[in-house]
Backbone:
């Protein structure tokens, strides 16, 4: 049985189970959705495919079926309930019926919780980073929900826990992850022993810690935290006996972010490591909450000297705290988000503060040829463009998976309701400058600059997205999505689909 047929069978089994169990427990939730859509120019617009956790329609004319099954926890989060033990299940599959039929497991995770802790195993919909709204945002630098979830084992504190001293003024949350990325292409020049296909099995590590300062009745709250991600593993398949660390020692080096040095190999951190340092504050007025935030990027080390401090994601969210479900005049706004994304500096200019590692070259990696991607899709911000998604004609370094990681972008998002119809709007204007290997200065290492591979011509890109959703009776709902790309970075395209869903 091939993978497509297998997933179709699993899809049907889950919904038979949901139908049979809907009278048994209210904690079992099932949902099925069908979409009929079309995209022009054989391309899916950016915001129809970005930050969708890998749940993306096929280009052209297509019909999609999305099935979901969830077993939720019996009780909501309660930090005072030490005896609270429960388990849950998250399953979602997608089948695209188009010129080429495809099936994908979007989500498949078993989870359990005790007290403030939660453990998960499998593929989950994950986002890491501090922003004002994960649905409206352009996406976090580290993990934005742009790609499929990486299979993993995870333990986390998912909600801020108020520490039991100083009257609970300090709250913490965080996570620890060990995952499996699969076979990754490694640059041929790294190998010290013969190899057949230059791919090795690689692992995934993630950890984060975030804090909040503020009490329940404070109008002002302060936020801060850091996240760290890494791909690494099986270095002996690349370096042979020259590599002296055991698997446990390798993981400790990754966990601590330590450099490894060995004659004949060189000095470097293992694999591909990156993340962000995040800060934010919120202030509650009578009916409005303002939340401002900033993500500082790090990739190869410039942040330790504040050399790339101008790069980052800066945002402001305005949230309506009025709890009315529907305004008397027929409409109500819920949230606005404004973001400025800047990754153009990278400590890569001749006048930048010098660092041993040179320009950051965000998401590209000299060891892993596919950089910060999973299954050919970028894991971080979708505003950094992979070469496979770019319009033909631009200069592209074949040793760089991401053709443009020097970006300046303005992004807005709006969430409102008009006559019981939920509307979500996103619009982005971006200016792309390639990367430093295709800049007039070339890439750098310390004070040394290499000749440019070629010159990337700066281009502009505008992308927009509108989603309308309305609940009907008996668990039915319907929706409409319109999206478009116009510019010289991505292929110009227009896309739309209508959707009908049923939830049990």
Residues:
């Amino acid at each position: 049985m091939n993978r497509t047929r297998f997933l179709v069978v699993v899809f049907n089994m889950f919904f038979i189970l949901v139908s049979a169990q809907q009278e048994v427990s209210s904690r079992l939730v099932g949902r099925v959705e069908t979409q009929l859509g079309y995209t022009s120019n054989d391309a899916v617009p950016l915001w129809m495919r970005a930050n969708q956790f890998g749940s993306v329609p096929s280009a052209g004319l297509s019909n999609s079926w999305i099935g979901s099954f969830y077993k939720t926890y019996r009780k909501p989060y309660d930090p005072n309930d030490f005896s609270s033990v429960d388990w849950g299940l998250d399953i979602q599959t997608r089948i695209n019926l188009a010129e080429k039929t495809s099936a994908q497991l979007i989500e498949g995770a078993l989870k359990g919780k005790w007290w403030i802790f939660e453990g998960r195993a499998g593929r989950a919909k994950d986002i890491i980073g501090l922003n004002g709204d994960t649905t409206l945002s352009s996406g976090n630098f580290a993990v934005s929900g742009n790609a499929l979830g990486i299979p993993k084992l995870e333990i986390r504190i998912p909600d801020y826990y108020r520490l039991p001293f100083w009257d609970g003024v300090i709250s913490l949350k965080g996570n620890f992850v060990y995952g499996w990325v699969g076979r990754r292409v490694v640059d041929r020049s790294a190998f010290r022993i013969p190899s057949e296909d230059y791919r090795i099995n690689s692992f995934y590590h993630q950890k984060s810690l975030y804090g909040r300062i503020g009490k329940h009745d404070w109008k002002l709250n302060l936020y801060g935290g850091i996240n760290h991600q890494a791909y690494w593993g099986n270095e002996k398949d690349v370096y042979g006996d020259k590599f002296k660390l055991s698997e446990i020692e390798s993981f400790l080096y990754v966990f601590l972010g330590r450099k490894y040095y060995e004659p004949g190999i060189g000095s470097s951190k293992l694999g591909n490591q990156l993340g962000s340092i995040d800060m934010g504050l919120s202030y509650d007025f009578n009916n409005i909450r303002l939340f401002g935030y900033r993500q500082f990027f790090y990739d190869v080390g410039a942040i330790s000297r504040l050399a790339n401090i101008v790069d980052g994601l800066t945002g402001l969210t305005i949230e309506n705290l009025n709890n009315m479900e529907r305004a008397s005049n027929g409409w109500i706004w819920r949230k606005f988000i404004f973001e400025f994304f800047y990754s153009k500096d990278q400590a890569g200019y001749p006048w930048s503060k010098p660092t041993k590692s040179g320009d950051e070259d965000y998401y590209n990696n000299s060891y892993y040829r596919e950089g910060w991607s999973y299954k050919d899709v970028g894991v971080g911000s979708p505003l950094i463009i992979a070469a496979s998604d770019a319009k033909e004609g631009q200069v592209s370094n074949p040793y760089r998976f991401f053709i443009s990681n020097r970006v300046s972008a303005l992004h807005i998002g709006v969430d409102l309701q008009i006559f019981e119809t939920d509307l979500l709007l996103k619009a982005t204007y971006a200016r792309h400058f390639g990367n430093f290997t295709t800049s007039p200065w070339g890439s750098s290492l310390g004070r040394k600059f290499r000749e440019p591979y070629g010159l990337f011509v700066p281009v502009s890109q505008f992308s927009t997205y509108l989603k309308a959703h309305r609940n009907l009776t008996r668990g039915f709902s319907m929706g409409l999505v319109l999206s478009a790309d116009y510019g010289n970075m991505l292929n110009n395209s227009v896309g739309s689909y209508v959707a009908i869903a049923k939830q049990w």
